[in-house]
Amino acid sequence: MYNTTKSRRKFFKYASASIAVGSLGIHSLESASPSVNPEPGPIDPSDKIKVTKIETFVLKNSWVFVKISTDAGITGWGEMLKDDAKACAAGALEVGDYLIGKDPRPVMKHWQAIHRGAFYKGGPIKTAILSGIDQALWDITGKCFGVPVYKLLGGPTRDKAFVYGTPNEETGVKAMKVGPQATRKAFKYTEGKMFIDEVVERFAALKQQYPGVDIGIDFHGAVQPTTASLLIKALEPLHPWFYEEIIQPLNVDVMAELAKKTHIPIATGERIFTKWGFREILEKNAAMILQPDVNYAGGITELRLIAGMAEAYYAPLAPHNPNGPCSLAASLQVAACIPNFMVQERGDREHELLAEPLPPVKDGYRPIPTGPGLGITIDEDKLMDEVGEPREYKTAYDADDGSVVDW
Question: Where are the domains of the chain?
Answer without folding.
Answer: 5-146, 152-373
